[in-house]
Amino acid sequence: xxxxGTHTKNYIYVKMLHGAILYxxxxxxxFIAALHAIRRVRWDVVIHTSNxxxxxxxxxxxxxxxxxxxxxxxxxxxxxxxxxxxxxxxxLFLTEKxxxxxxxxxxxxxxxxEGNTFIQIRNDxxxxxxxxxxxxxxxxxxxxxxxxxxxxxxxxxxEMLYSNxxxxxxxxxxxxxxxxxxxxxNSGYQPVVMNLHLNFNNGSAASxxxxxxxxxxxxxxxxxxxxxxxxxxxxxxxxxxxSFNPGFESTLLFSNDLLFEQIAYFAECILRQDQRLxxxxxxxxxxxxxxxxxxxxxxxxxx
Length: 303
Fold this sequence. Notes:
Elements: E1 4-8, E2 11-14, E3 17-23, H1 29-35, E4 41-48, H2 54-61, E5 68-71, H3 79-87, E6 91-94, H4 102-114, E7 119-121, H5 129-132, E8 143-149, H6 157-172, E9 176-184, E10 193-200, E11 205-211, E12 218-225, E13 228-233, H7 257-272, H8 280-302
Parallel strand pairs: 3-4, 3-5, 5-6, 6-7, 8-11
Antiparallel strand pairs: 1-2, 8-12, 9-10, 10-11, 12-13
Helix pairs in contact: 3-4, 4-8, 6-8
């Protein structure tokens, strides 16, 4: 269970975290070594999940009294397995691809809130060095334009929707008031091209285009406001583009930099009981994706 110190200024300080990490493949030794450098976190269990059963993994984790679990294998993101961990007091860091339905995600969030445990979902975009300091830019109206091209990866549609929509909600800081969905083709199969246009209560708007065609990867974001235009280029395999963040120098010495940054941030927030880990934006994103999927299904019926 969680080791808790004394109350000071209405905060509860956790003395030490005991971590477990679930990998779908052989763990990267350099990455694991980096995790061991995180202060006040002891990694008791590192599990290669291939050919392992849920019960056998639980049997390994429970004697170690793990209270922070990083699950990087989507096969171990069913609601039943995750809910059991939350009920045991575990904080969860989850891969962006999950087996839960929207309702199950919402139920897991509620369960964590009731048990005063934290959940963080991996999203490299929010931790991209060129985006970290500029993501929130005030309450003024904005127009956001995103083009995300991932040739041959239509199976990643839901994860791409999640990561981009969450980023939009963080930038706009307002509730969406309307959604228009266009997809090509629209015949009951995964769309090859999808465009979403969102209007927000504060007068902002966003256009998100997802494409799985062509042979060139691209992920561009533009934020238009009265103060001008800010452009971002989330280059794959080039996570520190100096042209979009002049003067930035990486101080990380390890592989999987963005994943390490997120797990380290997660541990820090747990140890300080930092309410920044609330999942309000994530919950809004799940509800938004559910509405988008319903519109896609309805359009497919009409065809």
